């Protein structure tokens, strides 16, 4: 059983190492289940084991990167990453990149500031892992934050064009 757990953990470390960006936990688990490495619960447990061992770092919003210790572990146990795993990583990221290139990634969310001092609205637009723009702004009410997020999702192109026009002219 310990050998299988090591394989799951190495598969997850290898997957994370192949990405220049943090990898969402759900993406890691989807990879593990879709490519028949293990079931959801074993994949989630392997990811938690890696986090507790200090091999991966939760870089926010349930997204993971390798730590220095994770890199060294992967180097030391590189023979556990099989050619089949490498092929799975390549296939997985190819499929995900094709999906990401078909559409821009639009993010709009807000966080409450402590002490009732308002909200910070986070807006971003990415295309194929490249950030076109990212804006963080302070607003006073939750209603303002919700409206900005909703409108941005619908009008992000116009927002980008207006900002570029204003800054370029």
Walk me through what this model shows.
The structure is a single chain. The protein is an alpha+beta fold and 169 residues long. The protein has two domains: 2-102, Arc Repressor Mutant, subunit A, CATH 1.10.10.10; 105-168, Double Stranded RNA Binding Domain. It has helices spanning 2-17, 25-34, 40-52, 68-76, 83-102, 142-168; strands spanning 23-24, 56-58, 63-66, 105-112, 119-127, 130-139. The longest helix has 27 residues, at 142-168. The N and C termini lie far apart (64 Å).
What keywords describe this structure?
169 residues, alpha+beta, Arc Repressor Mutant, subunit A, Double Stranded RNA Binding Domain, three-stranded antiparallel β-sheet, 6 strands, elongated
Helix content: 55-70%
The low-confidence runs, each spanning 5 or more residues with pLDDT under 50, are none
CATH homologous superfamily classification of the largest domain? Winged helix-like DNA-binding domain superfamily/Winged helix DNA-binding domain
Structural class, please? alpha+beta
Question: Could you say how many structural domains there are in total?
Answer: 2
Give me the number of helical elements.
6
Overall residue-averaged pLDDT value: 87
Give me the CATH architecture of the largest domain, please.
Orthogonal Bundle
Separation, N- and C-terminal Cα atoms:
64 Å
Question: Biggest sheet, strands in spatial order?
Answer: 1-3-2
Q: What's the count of strands? A: 6
The H-and-E topology, N to C, reads as HEHHEEHHEEEH
Q: Main beta sheet: strand number and arrangement?
A: 3 strands, antiparallel
Query: Which CATH first-tier class of the largest domain would you pick?
Result: Mainly Alpha
What is the CA-based Rg, rounded?
20 Å
């Amino acid at each position: 059983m310990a050998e299988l757990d090591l394989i799951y953990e190495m598969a997850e470390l290898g997957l994370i190492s192949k990405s220049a960006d943090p990898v969402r936990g759900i993406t890691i688990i989807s990879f593990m289940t879709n490519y028949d490495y293990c079931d959801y619960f074993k994949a989630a447990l392997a990811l938690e084991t890696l986090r507790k061992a200090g091999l991966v770092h939760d870089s926010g919003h349930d997204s993971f990167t390798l730590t220095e210790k994770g890199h060294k572990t992967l180097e030391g146990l590189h023979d556990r990453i099989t050619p089949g795993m490498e092929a799975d990583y390549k296939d997985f990221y190819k499929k995900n990149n094709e999906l990401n290139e078909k559409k821009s990634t639009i993010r709009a969310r807000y966080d409450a500031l402590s002490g009732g001092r308002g909200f910070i609205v986070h807006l971003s637009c990415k295309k194929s892992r490249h950030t076109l723009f990212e804006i963080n702004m302070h607003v006073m009410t939750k209603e303002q934050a919700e409206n900005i997020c909703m409108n941005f999702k619908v009008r992000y192109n116009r927002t980008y064009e207006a900002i570029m026009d204003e800054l370029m002219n």
